[in-house]
Amino acid sequence: MAEDPSGWSLTESDPQVFTQLLRELGVKGLQVDDLYSLDAATLEVLKPIHALIFLFKYIGGDEGQETSGIEVDPLESGVWFANQVINNSCGTLAALNAVMNIPSQWSEHSGEEIALGSELENLRDFGAGMSAFDLGHVLSSSDRIREVHNSFARSSPFSMDPSAFPEREKEDAYHFVAYLPVNGVLYELDGLRRTPVMHAAVEHDWLVQARETIEARIATYPPGSVMFNLLAVRSAAIPRLTRLLNDPTLPAESHMQLSDQLEYENNKANKGRTENTLRQHNLLPAVFAMLKAMGETGTLVDEARVKGQDRRARKEKE
Protein backbone atom coordinates (compact mmCIF):
# COMPACT_ATOMS: atom_id res chain seq x y z
CA MET A 1 0.00 0.00 0.00
CA ALA A 2 2.96 2.33 -0.25
CA GLU A 3 1.97 3.74 -3.60
CA ASP A 4 -1.19 3.61 -5.67
CA PRO A 5 -1.86 4.33 -9.34
CA SER A 6 -4.39 6.94 -8.19
CA GLY A 7 -1.52 9.14 -7.03
CA TRP A 8 -2.39 9.05 -3.32
CA SER A 9 0.43 7.95 -1.02
CA LEU A 10 0.26 6.16 2.31
CA THR A 11 0.61 8.54 5.27
CA GLU A 12 1.42 8.01 8.93
CA SER A 13 -1.09 7.67 11.74
CA ASP A 14 0.29 10.61 13.71
CA PRO A 15 -1.81 13.29 15.41
CA GLN A 16 0.62 16.02 14.36
CA VAL A 17 0.18 14.94 10.73
CA PHE A 18 -3.58 15.27 11.06
CA THR A 19 -3.29 18.63 12.83
CA GLN A 20 -1.01 20.07 10.16
CA LEU A 21 -3.04 18.52 7.33
CA LEU A 22 -6.21 20.25 8.56
CA ARG A 23 -4.33 23.51 9.09
CA GLU A 24 -2.91 23.47 5.55
CA LEU A 25 -6.39 22.83 4.18
CA GLY A 26 -7.53 26.01 5.92
CA VAL A 27 -9.25 24.61 9.03
CA LYS A 28 -8.97 26.95 12.00
CA GLY A 29 -9.28 26.32 15.72
CA LEU A 30 -8.82 22.53 15.80
CA GLN A 31 -6.01 20.16 16.68
CA VAL A 32 -5.69 16.37 16.80
CA ASP A 33 -4.23 14.47 19.75
CA ASP A 34 -3.61 10.87 20.71
CA LEU A 35 -6.18 9.50 23.12
CA TYR A 36 -4.69 6.79 25.31
CA SER A 37 -7.75 6.15 27.44
CA LEU A 38 -11.49 6.64 27.31
CA ASP A 39 -11.88 7.23 31.03
CA ALA A 40 -13.70 10.36 32.13
CA ALA A 41 -10.61 12.04 33.63
CA THR A 42 -8.59 11.74 30.41
CA LEU A 43 -11.45 13.02 28.28
CA GLU A 44 -12.04 15.95 30.63
CA VAL A 45 -8.49 17.25 30.15
CA LEU A 46 -8.90 17.31 26.36
CA LYS A 47 -12.36 18.87 26.20
CA PRO A 48 -13.93 20.31 24.21
CA ILE A 49 -13.63 17.26 21.93
CA HIS A 50 -15.60 17.50 18.70
CA ALA A 51 -14.87 14.13 17.07
CA LEU A 52 -12.98 10.89 17.57
CA ILE A 53 -11.00 9.10 14.84
CA PHE A 54 -10.66 5.37 15.40
CA LEU A 55 -7.89 3.41 13.68
CA PHE A 56 -8.21 -0.36 13.59
CA LYS A 57 -6.50 -3.27 11.90
CA TYR A 58 -8.17 -5.64 9.49
CA ILE A 59 -7.31 -9.07 10.86
CA GLY A 60 -9.80 -11.21 9.03
CA GLY A 61 -13.02 -12.66 10.33
CA ASP A 62 -15.37 -10.44 12.29
CA GLU A 63 -12.96 -9.03 14.89
CA GLY A 64 -13.00 -5.24 14.97
CA GLN A 65 -15.17 -4.93 11.89
CA GLU A 66 -18.62 -5.65 13.24
CA THR A 67 -20.44 -2.53 14.33
CA SER A 68 -23.83 -1.93 15.87
CA GLY A 69 -26.11 0.85 14.75
CA ILE A 70 -28.37 1.60 11.83
CA GLU A 71 -27.36 2.77 8.39
CA VAL A 72 -29.13 6.01 7.44
CA ASP A 73 -29.39 8.23 4.39
CA PRO A 74 -26.90 11.10 4.88
CA LEU A 75 -29.06 13.57 2.96
CA GLU A 76 -32.10 12.83 5.11
CA SER A 77 -30.14 12.83 8.39
CA GLY A 78 -28.18 16.01 7.62
CA VAL A 79 -24.78 14.28 7.82
CA TRP A 80 -22.00 15.30 5.42
CA PHE A 81 -20.56 11.98 4.31
CA ALA A 82 -18.18 10.92 1.53
CA ASN A 83 -17.26 7.40 0.48
CA GLN A 84 -13.67 6.27 0.08
CA VAL A 85 -13.22 5.66 -3.65
CA ILE A 86 -9.40 5.35 -3.81
CA ASN A 87 -6.73 3.54 -1.78
CA ASN A 88 -4.52 5.18 0.86
CA SER A 89 -6.93 8.05 1.51
CA CYS A 90 -8.85 6.69 4.51
CA GLY A 91 -7.04 8.80 7.12
CA THR A 92 -7.57 12.08 5.30
CA LEU A 93 -11.13 11.06 4.43
CA ALA A 94 -11.98 10.24 8.06
CA ALA A 95 -10.61 13.63 9.13
CA LEU A 96 -12.61 15.43 6.44
CA ASN A 97 -15.81 13.49 7.17
CA ALA A 98 -15.36 14.63 10.76
CA VAL A 99 -14.54 18.32 10.29
CA MET A 100 -17.19 18.83 7.59
CA ASN A 101 -19.76 18.02 10.31
CA ILE A 102 -18.23 20.12 13.10
CA PRO A 103 -20.19 23.38 13.34
CA SER A 104 -18.26 26.61 12.88
CA GLN A 105 -17.94 28.55 16.12
CA TRP A 106 -17.35 32.27 16.44
CA SER A 107 -15.32 33.51 19.38
CA GLU A 108 -14.45 36.94 20.66
CA HIS A 109 -11.06 35.53 21.64
CA SER A 110 -8.38 35.40 18.97
CA GLY A 111 -7.47 31.91 17.79
CA GLU A 112 -10.42 30.24 19.50
CA GLU A 113 -12.90 30.36 16.62
CA ILE A 114 -13.57 27.19 14.60
CA ALA A 115 -13.91 27.52 10.83
CA LEU A 116 -13.46 25.28 7.78
CA GLY A 117 -11.71 27.83 5.61
CA SER A 118 -12.53 28.73 2.03
CA GLU A 119 -11.13 25.55 0.41
CA LEU A 120 -13.36 23.15 2.32
CA GLU A 121 -16.32 25.52 2.47
CA ASN A 122 -16.32 25.71 -1.33
CA LEU A 123 -16.14 21.92 -1.57
CA ARG A 124 -18.98 21.54 0.91
CA ASP A 125 -21.16 24.02 -0.99
CA PHE A 126 -20.29 22.46 -4.34
CA GLY A 127 -21.20 18.99 -3.07
CA ALA A 128 -24.50 19.95 -1.45
CA GLY A 129 -27.12 17.36 -2.38
CA MET A 130 -24.63 14.89 -3.85
CA SER A 131 -24.53 11.21 -2.93
CA ALA A 132 -21.76 9.88 -0.69
CA PHE A 133 -20.19 8.15 -3.69
CA ASP A 134 -20.13 11.36 -5.73
CA LEU A 135 -18.72 13.31 -2.79
CA GLY A 136 -15.94 10.76 -2.55
CA HIS A 137 -15.03 11.46 -6.17
CA VAL A 138 -15.18 15.21 -5.55
CA LEU A 139 -12.65 14.90 -2.72
CA SER A 140 -10.38 12.52 -4.59
CA SER A 141 -10.40 14.88 -7.59
CA SER A 142 -9.25 17.85 -5.52
CA ASP A 143 -5.66 18.63 -6.47
CA ARG A 144 -5.19 20.67 -3.31
CA ILE A 145 -6.34 17.90 -0.94
CA ARG A 146 -4.23 15.30 -2.75
CA GLU A 147 -1.14 17.55 -2.68
CA VAL A 148 -1.48 18.24 1.06
CA HIS A 149 -2.17 14.56 1.77
CA ASN A 150 0.87 13.42 -0.24
CA SER A 151 3.13 15.98 1.39
CA PHE A 152 2.99 13.80 4.52
CA ALA A 153 3.79 10.54 2.69
CA ARG A 154 6.12 8.10 4.41
CA SER A 155 9.74 8.60 3.42
CA SER A 156 11.47 5.60 1.89
CA PRO A 157 14.55 5.35 -0.33
CA PHE A 158 13.27 2.13 -1.83
CA SER A 159 10.43 1.36 -4.21
CA MET A 160 9.27 -2.19 -3.83
CA ASP A 161 6.54 -4.12 -5.59
CA PRO A 162 4.18 -5.51 -2.90
CA SER A 163 3.27 -8.43 -5.18
CA ALA A 164 6.85 -9.70 -4.86
CA PHE A 165 6.36 -10.58 -1.19
CA PRO A 166 4.46 -13.47 0.37
CA GLU A 167 1.06 -12.53 1.74
CA ARG A 168 2.21 -12.79 5.35
CA GLU A 169 5.02 -10.28 4.71
CA LYS A 170 2.83 -7.59 3.16
CA GLU A 171 2.02 -4.52 5.20
CA ASP A 172 -0.92 -4.86 7.55
CA ALA A 173 -4.09 -3.11 6.45
CA TYR A 174 -5.44 -0.44 8.78
CA HIS A 175 -8.51 1.72 8.42
CA PHE A 176 -9.80 4.99 9.93
CA VAL A 177 -13.38 5.81 10.87
CA ALA A 178 -14.80 8.89 12.60
CA TYR A 179 -17.30 9.17 15.47
CA LEU A 180 -19.05 12.44 16.30
CA PRO A 181 -22.44 13.92 17.14
CA VAL A 182 -24.57 15.49 14.43
CA ASN A 183 -27.92 17.08 15.33
CA GLY A 184 -27.96 15.36 18.71
CA VAL A 185 -27.16 11.86 17.44
CA LEU A 186 -23.89 9.88 17.56
CA TYR A 187 -22.75 8.74 14.11
CA GLU A 188 -20.00 6.51 12.83
CA LEU A 189 -18.57 7.68 9.52
CA ASP A 190 -16.75 4.91 7.69
CA GLY A 191 -15.88 5.77 4.11
CA LEU A 192 -15.98 2.11 3.10
CA ARG A 193 -19.63 1.84 4.13
CA ARG A 194 -22.42 2.94 1.86
CA THR A 195 -23.95 5.33 4.39
CA PRO A 196 -23.32 6.76 7.88
CA VAL A 197 -24.15 4.52 10.84
CA MET A 198 -26.44 5.99 13.49
CA HIS A 199 -25.68 4.71 17.01
CA ALA A 200 -27.54 6.58 19.73
CA ALA A 201 -29.16 9.81 20.73
CA VAL A 202 -26.78 12.08 22.67
CA GLU A 203 -28.22 12.81 26.09
CA HIS A 204 -25.80 15.23 27.76
CA ASP A 205 -22.18 14.45 26.92
CA TRP A 206 -21.83 12.74 23.53
CA LEU A 207 -18.54 11.17 24.65
CA VAL A 208 -20.46 8.89 27.03
CA GLN A 209 -22.24 7.23 24.11
CA ALA A 210 -19.07 7.28 22.00
CA ARG A 211 -17.06 5.58 24.76
CA GLU A 212 -19.62 2.78 25.09
CA THR A 213 -19.78 2.27 21.33
CA ILE A 214 -16.01 2.19 20.81
CA GLU A 215 -15.37 -0.01 23.85
CA ALA A 216 -17.92 -2.50 22.52
CA ARG A 217 -16.08 -2.53 19.22
CA ILE A 218 -12.68 -2.98 20.87
CA ALA A 219 -14.14 -5.91 22.82
CA THR A 220 -14.57 -7.80 19.52
CA TYR A 221 -10.78 -8.11 19.26
CA PRO A 222 -8.88 -10.99 20.88
CA PRO A 223 -7.95 -10.22 24.53
CA GLY A 224 -4.75 -8.23 24.87
CA SER A 225 -4.73 -7.12 21.25
CA VAL A 226 -3.04 -3.85 20.35
CA MET A 227 -4.59 -3.36 16.96
CA PHE A 228 -6.19 0.03 17.25
CA ASN A 229 -5.52 3.68 18.02
CA LEU A 230 -7.75 6.59 18.92
CA LEU A 231 -7.39 10.26 18.06
CA ALA A 232 -9.34 13.21 19.44
CA VAL A 233 -10.27 16.19 17.27
CA ARG A 234 -10.42 18.97 19.85
CA SER A 235 -10.39 22.75 20.12
CA ALA A 236 -6.91 24.25 19.77
CA ALA A 237 -5.42 24.35 23.26
CA ILE A 238 -2.72 27.03 23.09
CA PRO A 239 -4.96 30.09 22.44
CA ARG A 240 -7.33 29.14 25.26
CA LEU A 241 -4.55 28.37 27.77
CA THR A 242 -2.76 31.61 26.90
CA ARG A 243 -5.94 33.62 27.46
CA LEU A 244 -6.65 31.95 30.80
CA LEU A 245 -3.10 32.55 32.03
CA ASN A 246 -3.42 36.24 31.20
CA ASP A 247 -6.46 36.54 33.46
CA PRO A 248 -5.33 38.52 36.55
CA THR A 249 -8.04 36.87 38.69
CA LEU A 250 -6.66 33.35 38.07
CA PRO A 251 -5.74 31.65 41.38
CA ALA A 252 -2.05 30.85 41.85
CA GLU A 253 -2.75 27.13 42.11
CA SER A 254 -4.59 27.11 38.79
CA HIS A 255 -1.90 29.31 37.24
CA MET A 256 0.77 26.69 37.94
CA GLN A 257 -1.36 23.88 36.50
CA LEU A 258 -2.25 25.82 33.35
CA SER A 259 1.38 26.91 32.90
CA ASP A 260 2.44 23.27 32.86
CA GLN A 261 -0.27 22.47 30.32
CA LEU A 262 0.76 25.38 28.09
CA GLU A 263 4.43 24.37 28.22
CA TYR A 264 3.47 20.82 27.27
CA GLU A 265 1.32 22.02 24.36
CA ASN A 266 4.03 24.37 23.09
CA ASN A 267 6.69 21.65 23.27
CA LYS A 268 4.39 19.22 21.48
CA ALA A 269 3.57 21.76 18.77
CA ASN A 270 7.26 22.62 18.24
CA LYS A 271 8.20 18.96 18.00
CA GLY A 272 5.31 18.35 15.60
CA ARG A 273 6.40 21.22 13.34
CA THR A 274 9.93 19.84 13.21
CA GLU A 275 8.76 16.31 12.42
CA ASN A 276 6.32 17.51 9.77
CA THR A 277 9.02 19.64 8.14
CA LEU A 278 11.19 16.54 7.85
CA ARG A 279 8.27 14.58 6.43
CA GLN A 280 7.46 17.25 3.87
CA HIS A 281 11.10 17.69 2.84
CA ASN A 282 12.21 14.14 2.24
CA LEU A 283 16.02 14.25 2.32
CA LEU A 284 16.57 10.52 1.81
CA PRO A 285 16.88 10.64 -2.01
CA ALA A 286 19.45 13.44 -1.75
CA VAL A 287 21.44 11.57 0.91
CA PHE A 288 21.48 8.37 -1.12
CA ALA A 289 22.45 10.29 -4.28
CA MET A 290 25.32 11.91 -2.38
CA LEU A 291 26.49 8.57 -0.99
CA LYS A 292 26.32 7.04 -4.45
CA ALA A 293 28.35 9.89 -5.94
CA MET A 294 30.95 9.66 -3.18
CA GLY A 295 31.21 5.93 -3.73
CA GLU A 296 31.66 6.36 -7.48
CA THR A 297 34.43 8.93 -7.01
CA GLY A 298 36.19 6.75 -4.46
CA THR A 299 35.79 9.29 -1.66
CA LEU A 300 34.10 6.78 0.63
CA VAL A 301 36.69 4.12 -0.11
CA ASP A 302 39.54 6.55 0.60
CA GLU A 303 37.97 7.72 3.85
CA ALA A 304 37.33 4.15 4.96
CA ARG A 305 40.97 3.22 4.16
CA VAL A 306 42.30 6.15 6.20
CA LYS A 307 40.05 5.33 9.15
CA GLY A 308 41.11 1.71 8.98
CA GLN A 309 44.76 2.67 9.02
CA ASP A 310 44.18 4.96 12.01
CA ARG A 311 42.47 2.15 13.94
CA ARG A 312 45.30 -0.25 13.23
CA ALA A 313 47.86 2.34 14.30
CA ARG A 314 46.05 2.95 17.59
CA LYS A 315 45.87 -0.78 18.31
CA GLU A 316 49.57 -1.22 17.66
CA LYS A 317 50.35 1.51 20.22
CA GLU A 318 48.15 -0.07 22.91
TrEMBL record:
Gene Ontology cellular component list: cytoplasm
Domain UCH catalytic residues, every copy: 7-235
Alphabetized InterPro entries for the sequence: Papain-like_cys_pep_sf, Peptidase_C12_UCH, Peptidase_C12_UCH_sf, Ubiquitinyl_hydrolase_UCH37, UCH_C
UniProt-listed Enzyme Commission number(s): 3.4.19.12
Site description Important for enzyme activity, residues in chain: 190
GO molecular function list: cysteine-type deubiquitinase activity
Keyword field: Hydrolase, Protease, Thiol protease, Ubl conjugation pathway
Active-site residues annotated for this sequence: 90, 175
One GO term of the biological process aspect: protein deubiquitination
Site features described as Transition state stabilizer, chain residue numbers: 84
Pfam families noted in UniProt: Peptidase_C12 (PF01088), UCH_C (PF18031)
Catalytic activity: Thiol-dependent hydrolysis of ester, thioester, amide, peptide and isopeptide bonds formed by the C-terminal Gly of ubiquitin (a 76-residue protein attached to proteins as an intracellular targeting signal)
Protein family (similarity comment): Belongs to the peptidase C12 family.
Protein name: Ubiquitin carboxyl-terminal hydrolase
Source organism of this protein record: Saitozyma podzolica
